[in-house]
Amino acid sequence: MKVAWAGSREAFQVSDRMAKLVANDPVFEKFSKPMLGRKELFKNTLRKAAYAWKLINDLRLTEEEAKWLRHYIDEPNYTDLHWEMFVPAIEGQGTKEQKKKWLPLAQTMQIIGTYAQTELGHGSNVQGLETTATFDRQTDEFVMHSPTLTSSKWWPGGMAKVATHAIVYARLIIDGLFHGVHGFIVQLRSLEDHSPLPGLTLGDIGMKFGHGTYNTMDNGVLRFDHVRIPRNQMLMRVSQVTKEGKYAQSDVPRQLLYGTMVSVRQTIVADASKALSRAVCIATRYSVVRRQFGSRNGGPETQVIDYKTQQSRLFPLLASAYAFRFVGEWLKSLYIDVKQRLEANDFSTLPETHACTAGLKALTTAATADGIEECRKLCGGHGYLISSGLPELFAFYVPACSYEGENVVMMLQVARFLVKTVSNLGYKQPVGTAAYLGRVTPLLQNNCAVQTAEDWLNPDAILEAFEARAARMVIGCGERLAMFENPEEGFAELSIDLVEASLAHCQLITVSVFIQKLNHEIPGNGVKRSLEVLCYVYALFLLHKHQGDFLATGYLTPKQASLANEQLRTLYSKVRPNAIAFVDSFNHMDHYLCSVLGRYDGNVYPKLYEAAWKDPLNDSDIVDGIQQYVQPILKQKLHYAKL
Ligand SMILES: CCCCCCCC/C=C\CCCCCCCCC/C=C/C(=O)SCCNC(=O)CCNC(=O)[C@H](O)C(C)(C)COP(=O)(O)OP(=O)(O)OC[C@H]1O[C@@H](n2cnc3c(N)ncnc32)[C@H](O)[C@@H]1OP(=O)(O)O
Ligand SMILES: Cc1cc2nc3c(=O)[nH]c(=O)nc-3n(C[C@H](O)[C@H](O)[C@H](O)COP(=O)(O)OP(=O)(O)OC[C@H]3O[C@@H](n4cnc5c(N)ncnc54)[C@H](O)[C@@H]3O)c2cc1C
């Protein structure tokens, strides 16, 4: 199962080696992190990032190994933006000459970059950005300027204190004419003494949610006061500006300017299963250790994992972790394919890839963020302790619902893709993830054939149910949209239904990828059978949760919906004996989990007790402030009624 989770034996070995490398090196200790102040926390992260870079070079780690190393170090920092956004932006949007100049500098970290798109006033609406890049023909330069307070760049990771360069997105202006938003490579700091270059105001935007996790990152603010950069620092794969000030667009579609976001959204989907599996591992192990009620004749109480209600909250999350792992793997291969096509100037699959990355990013991050919080509740009161590992994980993870495309905004992008697909149905056969929309007649006419709970243990029945629900919701939206004279008005009016239809479409993708995975790639019958159980849990849990959709679209009868729920309860009993094996298969080491409740050896209570004594408040019996503020109250002998 460890191999099935990792994707291959080789992938397992690489990640396992890196997990051990990090866990066994005292530099990467992290248990004391929540006790550090912001400055210490930040410096500590800089130290770890520098040491990691040294390891990557000394040990000659491959790109894959380096990624895993950064993952297991488990502290967001400037290198995330450098590797995940700055470098891909140059790769995807730079010309050959630009790549030749900038990539070697970035790949050896002689320069450190960030991605400066969002502003104080605009994040989701990229076309609304206000920073200007005005071409000056006399000097062959662009003048970068922040004309308003709301145009201040706001959020870019690593920008406040570390990055030497940034890809800055700004409105291109030539001779007073606006030519849309483009990316520009801008140097921010001196490579000699790291001071901000003249004309730039740079700072940190302040502490963020949680304590020890995202505050390791220096998210920054940046303002330009007429800062000049050479013309050849505009990323020119999509559009070019000549030294005469002529603006030209190549055959490459404008959407490629958004290409870096597609790349990172894919990474975010691939990473969702890491965060969710981590929370599920903690909650499952603890649910086996924790006992409440049910003791008879002085015997042990019941393990909380044996309560059906605990199972009904935990096991769907376990199944979701596996579903997200497989859909992440699938999306990665879709992305690798589109990347190769884009390099060869084939843009045909970009719209579908954009819809998949946007929608699955929204689906997986929302479910993971909610799932981590559910796992905290599944651990009862102890889940609220930092030493459970869950609060920090939650604080680290929740912004994923907002960054790289706010989730609702992303679902609306999926909706645009679906509406376009439906309106083209007469003359263009949908392919890939939208292919089912080409079979609307049977999907709209046929109803579910399930008659017994057992009938739900059938991939074809499940797939057809999810296809019919999505097709009926999408087509229904399409029909209602057609009644509006102004399509944009209609889209806005129906946006709530459109977001729901998009979710149904994305859930169909996750369910069908899970089923495909079982059909083709699982080594070992035992592993395959166990994963089948999880696949059914995932699908039937979604069906139960969204049964309103399945019933309202008329595909299911109430009886069939209740048979699905009956089967789901039976499936929980099949998951129970393997629950620990399922979470051990994630291969998460204690160092990575950083959780007293999720320890591999199950030795929870002594370690919980021990961890409490490490709190700085327990350094002495009488702490600072007691004599000054508590003792006087005790000695005053006043009664509140007399005050
Ligand atoms: C416990 C601690 C653990 C720590 C662990 C650390 C481990 C480290 C290891 C690895 C690191 C993992 C990496 C993760 C890194 C994450 C870092 C996150 C940092 C965050 C960065 C950011 O947030 S950057 C800013 C992101 N901003 C956005 O996403 C903005 C969202 N807005 C948009 O994308 C667009 O504006 C929007 C699409 C919403 C609208 O665009 P617009 O031009 O107005 O309009 P529209 O008319 O809708 O579209 C036109 C046309 O273009 C198509 N289209 C839109 N987007 C794309 C696209 N991206 N690609 C292709 N096509 C696109 C759209 O469909 C339209 O098409 P048509 O309908 O015309 O055909
Ligand atoms: C931790 C973190 C790190 C970040 N790192 C970076 C970075 O490195 N570089 C960078 O450039 N940016 C970064 N960002 C910014 C991030 O990309 C934006 O915050 C994100 O894209 C959301 O945009 P917004 O803040 O403008 O949200 P808004 O769009 O203002 O969202 C507010 C609300 O409005 C709703 N809404 C907005 N538009 C619509 C619509 N059309 N229809 C319906 N509802 C709508 C949203 O659903 C949401 O509920 C980071 C953000 C965070 C939290």
Task: Describe it.
The protein has three domains: 2-75, Butyryl-Coa Dehydrogenase, subunit A, domain 1, CATH 1.10.540; 89-250, Butyryl-CoA Dehydrogenase, subunit A, domain 2 (Beta Barrel), CATH 2.40.110; 259-584, Butyryl-CoA Dehydrogenase, subunit A, domain 3 (Up-down Bundle). The mean pLDDT is 96. Helix content is 53%, strand content 9%. The strands form four sheets. Strands 1, 2, 3, 5, 6 and 9 form a six-stranded mixed beta sheet that branches. The protein has a three-stranded antiparallel beta sheet with strand order 4-8-7, with no helix packed on it. A two-stranded antiparallel sheet has the order 10-11. It is of the alpha+beta class. The chain has helices spanning 2-6, 9-23, 38-58, 63-73, 78-93, 96-107, 259-289, 308-343, 350-378, 390-397, 407-423, 440-445, 459-481, 487-493, 495-520, 525-545, 547-552, 558-575, 579-584, 590-593, 604-612, 626-636, and strands at 113-116, 132-136, 141-145, 153-154, 165-174, 177-187, 200-204, 220-224, 227-230, 239-241, 247-249, 291-292, 302-303. Bound molecules: ligand LGJENVYW and flavin-adenine dinucleotide. Flavin-adenine dinucleotide (FAD) binds at residues 81, 115-118, 123-124, 155-157, 214, 219, 399, 402-406, 408-409, 412.
